[in-house]
Amino acid sequence: MKLHWQILIALLLAVIAGRLSGTDGTLLGIPLYPVYVFIGALFMNALKMLIVPLIMSSIITGVAGIGDSRGLGRLGGKTLLFYMTTSLLAILIGLLFVNLLNPGIVNGEPARQVLGLSQEAAALATEKVQGRSASDLTDVFLSMVPPNVVAAAADGQMLGLIFFSLLFGFFMTRIDKETGSLLGRFWQGVADVMMGITTLIMKFAPLGVFGLVAKTVAGIGPEQLDDLAVSLGTFTLSVLLALAVHVLVTLPLMLIFVARVNPLRHYKAMMPALLTAFSTASSSATLPLTMECVQDNAKVSTRTSSFVLPLGATVNMDGTALYECVAAMFIAQAYGLELSLTTQFTVVLVALLTSVGVAGIPAASLVAITIILTTIGLPAEAIGLILAVDRILDMFRTSVNVFSDSCGAVIIARSEGEQGILKG
User: Fold this and answer.
1) pLDDT 10s digits, 248-299
2) SS3 325
3) How far apart are CA 80 and CA 404, in angstroms?
């Protein structure tokens, strides 16, 4: 059975179990609520355990791979610039909608209690996050260059770790070939091992979701279930509206004004790939069809598409980056935190930097959200509830990712002087 169906079943069972047991229920004399708490905490600890080695190995191998693939010449530079620009725009659109709709606020109050978030965690988060002002912006950049990268990793200072990994991966391709190859094999081995561990942990995701959601439902009253549904519904709406604006406004405008092509023709050309991306929720699985649509329907050269599209499947995750930011802001709102512009800037920066190389890992968005929350000092205990709507949102954001990749291929092909693109 597919993992998302297992998670959905676990979610339904958790709602039933939490509702029936409450905080005082027992089974064979064993209190159930502490069991829910233990299972949820164990899953979250396992997820956090992955972060440092997974992030380092994924980003280092991802950046090294970019550096090795025909070099970061003119075509590579244009491609990375486009992907970083569209990811940044997607993130900003997501921030706009999450600040407009405030999914973490229910009936004028933070949804902390509705989402089952602990008072102690809320107080700790407030102490860590509140009070940051625009003057702290320098601290954000200082944290990108930690005096001790090992201490930064131990303290959860993800910005410093990510920046170090980006530099390490880049300069790994600039040293002598034999040493660079040896280092590359080492980090690729670490990445492969971490992929295996991540896959193993995600096999237990249904159990983790059961514990997290059962704990939440057990701790709230029946009248608050409606509020919980409203909060998650508004969160889902925020993500979908932001994705819609990006794919129906931002990217088409870039096609019109930068590539000077008809976006309607591009939608038509890419429809088979978009439908496949929506049904499979996998950019990698859709890549062969994406290349076929871009080459045969949009008439982009093989030279451009064979470089731009595989690279996009690695580093260009517009929809995912948008989703990560909305999720992090949603959790912050639920804790009752007013995040300063500095903290929101940190969210944007971390989402942008983690998009390099993290795309291929299992449950990439889940890991990335955990990284963002860790960076800004928020507990990650609300992630279990987000998983309740993750599958449907994954289908939409994967389609956005694929469409953005294809737009990149068209725009870069036009910038290279290719003719006849989307002409008929």
Assistant:
1) 999 999 999 998 999 999 999 999 999 988 887 777 778 889 999 999 899 9
2) helix
3) 13
Q: Residue 272's closest CA among 254, 252, 286?
A: 286
The alpha carbons of the chain give a radius of gyration, in whole angstroms, of 22
- Cβ contact 98:329 at 8 Å: yes
**Mean pLDDT along residues 53-64:** 81
Q: What is the pLDDT of residue 192?
A: 87
Given CA atoms 394, 395, 396, 402 in this order, what sign does their dihedral have?
positive
Q: Are strands 30-31 and 105-106 parallel, antiparallel or unpaired?
A: unpaired
- Residue 30: DSSP 8-state: E
| Cα–Cα distance measured from residue 43 to residue 40, given in angstroms and rounded to the nearest whole number | 5
**No. of helices (H) and no. of strands (E), the chain:** 19, 4
CATH, range 3-415: 1.10.3860
Are 50 and 201 in contact by the 8 Å Cβ rule? The answer is yes
Q: Which helix (H) or strand (E) holds 110?
A: strand 109-110
Partners of residue 105 on adjacent β-strands: 110
Q: Residue 83, SS3?
A: helix
Other beta carbons less than 10 A from residue 419's beta carbon: 8
- Determine the residue type at 380: A
Give me the residue spans of the domains in the chain.
3-415
Q: Where do runs of H (alpha helix) occur along 22-73? A: 32-68
CA distances from 375 to 57, 111, 143, 152, 368 (A): 18, 22, 10, 11, 11
**DSSP 8-state class, residue 338:** -
- CA atoms of 263 and 251, how far apart (whole Å): 9
DSSP 122: H
Report which of 249, 280, 240, 241 is spatially closest to residue 407, judged by C-alpha positions: 249
CA atoms of 66 and 311, how far apart (whole Å): 7
- CB neighbour class for 300 (10 Å; exposed up to 12, middle 13-18, buried from 19): buried
